[in-house]
Design a protein that fits this description.
The protein has 280 residues and is of the alpha+beta class. 36% of the residues lie in helices and 22% in strands. Strands 2-3-4-5-7-6 form a six-stranded antiparallel sheet, covered by helices on one side. A hairpin with a 2-residue loop joins strand 6 and strand 7. Helix 7 runs antiparallel to helix 8. 40% of the residues are buried.
Length: 280
Amino acid sequence: MPDGPRDTDETTRTPPPSGDDGATGGRSGGPYRLKRIIGAGGMGVVYAASHARLGRPVAVKFLGTAADDPEMRRRYDQERAPLAALRHPALAHIYDAGEAEHDGAVVPYIAMEYIVGARPLSIACREADLPLGTLIEVFESLFDALDHAPRRGILHRDLKPGNILMDSEGKPKIIDFGLSLPTGAHGAFEAIEAEGGRPVGTYKYMSPEQRGGDPLALDHRTDIYSLALVMLEILKELHPEIPPSVARVLEGALRREPAQRTPRAALVRDGLRACRAELL
């Protein structure tokens, strides 16, 4: 039986281990110069870095203690290619993947898009006091991205405000597919077995079926639920008098039973777009 969910909220668990500001002193990791730590937790550590020869700024994530598990490393290797195939303006792009020495061991890494001025979505929306129409437009883009990922065979499984960033131009980016799950029954079952049968993610934002820990119950609708929950949470804080049309769209995305839930993220996107048109 599952022994409870594994909370992966890295933003609250592990401070940078290299000093208060996370500075690394210019150490290297594979072909990258590591500048400072920008995130750390059970799944690994993330650095702001640049390519040693090309100079391109990137964020480099090294696999953490999971690298000691041969099964987890095999899954990690298998999933890097489909992750790199994801291309959408609201998804952080994967540039490179490989293995390099990190803290005395050779571990897998992923180099991804570095998001300038990145702030967690909820904080960025609060600080900017986003108008309702602008906030809806932000989530239109996110649901559009969510429609793209399953068509590439990928679920996220850990959508939450900390894994959705706003860049310096006010554009959202979904990050951290470190808990991504291959779609399809065999891939899902294999992935959950490797995790000891426990539901993995951030419990507050899990869909009901994800909390249940049944790998065969998970499909793209679990991410629809989580993203809709994030939107509802931000709306309640910034615009508590939610328009009935928006409430209806979110109600469909948040139905407890997956079979009754809005079946595609694109339909949620289209519903929000119609709501925003009503505000103009």
